[in-house]
């Protein structure tokens, strides 16, 4: 079992506590809880049976755990509490019910937040990826920077397949981080095995942009998706590996 994360997030004068943890290989599930003063408001459950079936890789599990925790924190920062509650209902309908002590004893959960972990170093991009100066690109998950970028309900990227990528961009304001409207988002597909691609689109009034991608099938070489957001001279980016198709 991997140690989880705990973060206090304030929105509109209310402090929400976000906890994300791994339930262990006997119950392969990443569980995120959002609660206030012991009352659980929302829960996000993400099974990882696929990792076990394909040969367990703890590194990938840690990345998923961190990503889910940061995404839930971002949703709370944006005030999307009702969306999180609706998500909880969908998860409850599609996933196995959690153990009783996950919900009947919220007071047993840790109350002291741990520091939000830094994003792990990304895997190397293909050699034709554009060079980016450290001064131009910021940590996409940091709330100490003017922009933050997240993938919502992150899909798998596999050669020969397709994916709908939903991107959330947030910006720093005097009132905290809020959804960033009309920010340019660029999504690139880079590979040593097939020709690169590029799609540009602005975020909507809620800070979201959606892009549909289709990946050529490949068996060798490297490939990645590069997502960039740029606003008033500040750019953030994140990268995801495209796995070879079977």
Structure description:
- With 246 residues, the protein is of the alpha+beta class.
- It folds into two domains: 5-108, no CATH class; 137-241, Immunoglobulins (Immunoglobulin-like), CATH 2.60.40.10.
- Helices cover 17% and strands 39% of the residues.
- The protein is flat.
CATH architecture call of the largest domain: Sandwich
User: Cα-atom Rg, whole angstroms?
Assistant: 18 Å
- The total strand number stands at 13
Write out the CATH superfamily name of the largest domain.
Immunoglobulins
Strand content: 35-45%
Strand order of the largest sheet: 5-13-12-9-10
Which stretches are poorly predicted, pLDDT < 50 over at least 5 residues?
A: 94-144
Molecular shape: flat
For the termini, the CA-CA separation is 30 Å
Note the topology.
Layout lengths: L4 E7 L2 E9 L6 E8 L2 E9 L1 H5 L4 H20 L3 H14 L6 H4 L32 E2 L8 E6 L9 E12 L2 E4 L4 E8 L5 E6 L5 E7 L8 E9 L2 E8 L5
From the structure above, extract its key features.
5-stranded mixed sheet; 4 helices; 4-stranded antiparallel sheet; 17% helix; alpha+beta; Immunoglobulin-like; 246 residues
What's the quick description here?
By secondary structure, the protein is α+β, with helices and mostly antiparallel strands. The chain has helices at residues 49-53, 58-77, 81-94, 101-104, and strands at 5-11, 14-22, 29-36, 39-47, 137-138, 147-152, 162-173, 176-179, 184-191, 197-202, 208-214, 223-231, 234-241.
